[in-house]
Records
---
Amino acid sequence: MNLQSKLAILADAAKYDASCASSGAAPRNSVGGRGMGSTEGMGICHSYAPDGRCISLLKILLTNFCQYDCLYCVNRVTSNVPRARFTVGEVVQLTLDFYRRNCIEGLFLSSGIIQSPDYTMEQVVEVARVLREEHDFRGYVHLKTIPDASPELMERAGRYADRLSINIELPTAEGLTALAPEKDSAAIDRSMARMAVHIGEARAARKEQTAQAIVSMPQSRTTRRASVPHFAPGGQSTQMIVGADATSDRTILATSARLYGVHRLRRVYYSAFSPIPDAARALPLTAPPTVREHRLYQADWLMRFYGFAHEEIVPPSQGGMLALDMDPKLAWALAHRERFPVNLNTAPRELLLRVPGFGVQTVERLLAARRVRRLRHADLARLHVPLKKVLPFVEAADYRPGPALDAADLAAQLTPPPVQRSLF
């Protein structure tokens, strides 16, 4: 099989993996002729860092052969799909060639399991090693790791990758046992814990080195200490499939909250289940509405940046599921109208963050502005917030919502009809 045919198969097979955003990479570039690649600048794909940089990634599998028979996976051993496999050298060459053509700024590499977890992980790590050590590639590298691989291989992966990810696959251990019996949820958890320890130790060592360098700077400007090596500076992420089993949104968010708290994950990605050919009878016949995936991302954002606890986002009255016809922040506000209206001039930051239509940056600007003067209705218009959504929940020096907050049809006024979109 020629390289182009392999690329067509293995790039398409990688599209189901959502966990490939490039946030957290250390800034590196090849300005001045040093090395090759960059984690900076604009690309042609759609992975965005928190500061707005778009980093294009070559997103492929090393191989879509796999000895596991996970029922939800199109690449499972019993699946009737075309198979292909790259060599280490082919992945390296593709990455460099695409970079030279200004098509990508980095690599996202995953793989099916062949021969053994250790053998597969060794091949994945070797790609990153050759790029870094033999070609001085300074672009972004995200490696999908294999939980059953040896700790030594996982540690090596962290030396070369900007981010590592280990897929939890399904939100519960029971779901994983039912749909992917060859995978071990305890092993996945142990691997995440080890990774978190390595990442934490590397960050602490670099902080200590930076502090020592500042203290010793006046005494000696000529002594150079060896730099503490990076270990997955972008942290670790994971992905879970939504809708392959009957797990509720409330349980999914509880699992995510645990991963963020215990393993300090940088991101949890949610991937709506997509029906596959020759699927097992245990799987649903249709995909869940993609708006459910969208609502989970919104709820995840509320946990990470807006101070919401996972258990308060999905009220018991909704049967453990997020409302599909409105975003979870608005749903919470409508269910807790007694907490509103919020006074823009006196309310604490924590309460302002709960106002529908207010983002984190908007709240910071409001807090900064009210230090010098009282906020008025016109200030909201200057911030370009969605006034229709915001006004029923706030009051300012010259504005009161009046009976608008108690209107029986307020939810209908603020929620446009949902739109169902396709996955790909």
---
Amino acid sequence: MRPRTTRGLAAVALAAALGATTPSAASADARPGGPLTERVSTASDGAQLERASQHAAISDDGRYVAFSTKTSLSPEFPGCEQQTYVCLAVKDRRTGRLTRIANGGGFDWGPPVLSGDGRYVGYTEGTKGPSARVDDLTTGESTPVASAARIQDITPDGRYVLYTSGDDRFVTDRYVYVRDMATGTAERIEGDATTTRFGAASLSADGRFVAYQKRGSGPEGGDVFVEDRATGTTARADGGLGDSDAEFVRISGDGRRVLFAAEGRTYAYDVRGGTARQVADAPARSASRDARYAVLPQEGTGGGRLVLLDVRTGRRTALAPGETRAGAVTVTSGGRAAVFTSTASDLVPGDTNGTSDVFVRRVR
């Protein structure tokens, strides 16, 4: 990403006040020799949070995890006990440090998104209406992206941000936009002020390709489209496969493959070849940024347990027992670790808070 102008000493002071550290390269698992399952929704001193944590996302290298929480007892989360407030934080798994995102509360609009190294966190905030923002955890700079908008994706270098927006604070899915954070300009991909509505959306690593779900756009229901921003061409990915799932779309970093769910199954669409093939008989809920690994419900569990699917080989690996939920990009590069939310109390020792927590599972 092209360097952005910082705010001098004020930005450095803010970063210090937030407890931010400069992200650096790390292995796919921040603790290679650590436990297979690690609870990350804890305070900096390791104490458990007494209220629910959820909406988790993990950086490509596995070092940083962003999540929201309603906790009130920890001094790192003052004010989160208020009815309309939900706090957002980023955990450094290497140091244990917790950095709170300090923009007013109300982070329950959906999962945050992280850049590849965890330096940039994109999120939707607001207690009366959603707005999209991106924070630089190195400088402490917080940049508003759009009002009446929900964050969808961010490129690994943090330069391009994908979001949906609307005409007022109560309608946030009438348009699909890509914003260049270096220039401050935004490009409308599709949308209008009529009845068009959009679901999940995803960006390639260079920001060139956009995959998105358009609700009720055709005779089969929702459809998935892929736009090449360089050429302006748009292709439909799910032709003949039925109604697509508005909650999940993931394009690979190189823009060559799109994973999406339709009619309870998961498909991989070849952007160059224009063909789709079924890769799972269950609907994926999230995937790695390279679209090779997908998180989906385990068969016979009623959707309450998750497995990690290697799209290339078909291999499936159980993530954890008990009720689990996935968020946005919840799998690291190479499929080595995944982050999820669970209410299970037996995944790690000392889990006695009786509510949902965020966990990282080291798969290999």
---
Amino acid sequence: MSAWIDMLRSQYNWCLNDRICQYSQQFIQGNYCDIRTKGEASPLTCFVSKSGATGNPWKDSKSDKEGKARNPRRSAGDIQITALPELKMARPWYSGIDSTVLQQNVKRLDIAYKNFFEGRGFPKFKNRSNFTSFTFVMGVKIKGNKIYLPKLGWMRFYNSRSIPDGFTIKACAVRKRQNGWYVSIRIEDKSVPEYSATPVGDNPKVIGCDLGITKLVHLSDGYQIKNPKFSTNKKAKRTLKIRQRRVSRKIKGSKNRKKAAIKVGNFHQKISDKRQAYQWKTANLIVSRNVDVIATEDLNISGMMRRCKVKSDEKTGRFLKNGQSRKKGLNRAMSDAGWGDLGLKIEYLAAKQGKIVIKVNPKHSSQECRNCSHTIFLKIR
């Protein structure tokens, strides 16, 4: 499975680089273009697309409702999925990976591009730290405490929650963590009704959530939820400092250095598990209140954690203090709070209970009067 992750990461990076190169070479207005004249061309004479990939862009044989033959154009993801047999012929070691896993790896890149066009960040090349999972969509079986994964065979696992009767396995994600491998299974039962938001009346009950650091959540009814500060408390920072120092003192490439690094990873995983459990508890506490609508802040967390602008002296050109050394501690506190993950958990639990979650612009939310809507500006000298 470790070898699979290494190969899938290489495939993901190659597919991303292929799309970037195709876009850079064909960045011309219009769906179709002529490379020589750099103008729009007919798809009958030119098949170059600015969002395409290397490969055959046309489907071989398709027919419409009337039975007439047509060759619709493939998307970039379909082009790369169609080229997978050629990949296995050129590099036979990829034949050992299940075909659905390779296809889902390309679709993972499609989702990254979709998120980019919806306003999120551009897809990035993966390394060993941020590419640790792969997904099966067919052939997974479970019998007691054993699971069958295609091309990997039967293996034992800790069955933390048995699958109810009548549910079918739709997908299975395998993830590598510091202390071992984890598997999460997505199941489906068509008899279970879909969750739908309950209609809100004329006077809905609304509760507002203000995220913070001293207190994790301030609710509009006066209730406050404390922030445990799992990775920024005194004990955690001291433990992490000692373990990282032990890693740096070991010889590079030695087994003792790997052992010390594993201990650092286990400590980070322990903090992450604590934070996840506390966020689920907090989200359930907020959603379980007798309200119809939950309002949360639409925070730009990545912008809030961005580095301060560089300041320099106009005469000497030397750099001046810009407050980044003090802001470093604030960035760590915001990262430890996990506001983004908490918001996703609130939306998930609210959807299951038929409640509505709205995001409010946080601009002037602390200076605006709720009675007269007057905004108070404080000038600091």
---
Amino acid sequence: MLLDTTLREGEQSFGTYLSMADRERILRGLAAVRVQEAEVGWAGREDLADMLALSARVAPGLAAAAWCRCRPEDLRTAATCGARRVCVGVPVSDAHLARRLGVGRPALLDLLAATLAEARALGIRHVTVGMEDASRADRDFVFAVARHAAAHGAHRVRLSDTVGLYTPLEVADMVRGLRAALDATRQDATAPRARRVSIGTHFHNDCGMATANALTALESGADCADVSVLGLGERAGVARLEELAAALVVRGRANLDLAPLRGLCAHVAQAAGLSVPRHWPVAGRDIFAVESGLHAHGVRRDPSLFEPFPPALVGGSRRLGVGRKSGVAAVAAALAELSILPPPDALPAIVKAVRELSATLRRPLTPAELTGIASAGSGVPERYRTGGAAGIALLSAPPVSDAPPTGGDDNDKPRHPRTADQGRARTREA
């Protein structure tokens, strides 16, 4: 299961300010993808009640949660706003306990028990206990916190890699160990509650492993993984919704609709003032564009030879281009698609011209440019010929992409100016 935190973790990212219209589009997009759960805000956020109501109205099938600190008063605030599902942040590393909370391990366990008791008294139906900074915490204490949470009524415990240090092998070992510890607690006749407690994860991407860690966790026994659109979040962000969703669907592990993802990514990029690199997995505009001769030949024979999934699965489309890396077969095939059939002895010269112009322009050629090269010397107007600087300048318009917009490439600038009154309250969990 995926829990999207674009509207909590994502909104914490530096310089990101989403309007209510943006949030509504994100909620509708998550519902269209069939994401099961989302954090839509935090206790103390001025518009938490509005966000919970908005989620219930536009995405009724999405389980909406509010994030809280490990304090009974935060749960009371969330419940007053209408929250019936909460995620409680609990630091578990000694560094956070000493320097952030100023408490020891026993005091933390007492505070957690009191907070969970308050949740029961408030009638909150689902409580996740997020164990923050787990990757730098003592493993035995992490397990002790998880068992304590289970014994006092938590429905889910969440491993939070606050600074993105876990590796997939460490994650697999940690999740399996945590599952064994929780199952042992479940068999304890003295525990107040015998239900099965699920395992969630929250991986940051500081070392570029968040999505891999999330997938590994799910394949190692975790029940839920936190994600956000484009990985939006603090610093380098968290596991990316579009990547993890695609991996799960391709592996037959999830029933998600990937087709709306590119549009959702494009909107989040625009709203957050981000640029989506053209090679970005799932959302990049050029991920189904092929130029090199070997790949183009293979894709024309059978696209599955060089594609992990068909473009339509994620709402994309395929493009085959010719340029400096193209050979005779690729150029001939591209010309045939334009209903141009030059004599075989003319192809080497055409390929040479294609490569030279592409190298000059530093990009693949457009159909018009390819047509101009093939027609050169055949009575077509001079403006289509490729000899000299004037011809190159006339043929230098950028190629037209048939892929959906994805917020631009690396050189784009943010589209929305920032204003001082767009600030929002921040939470403290990773």
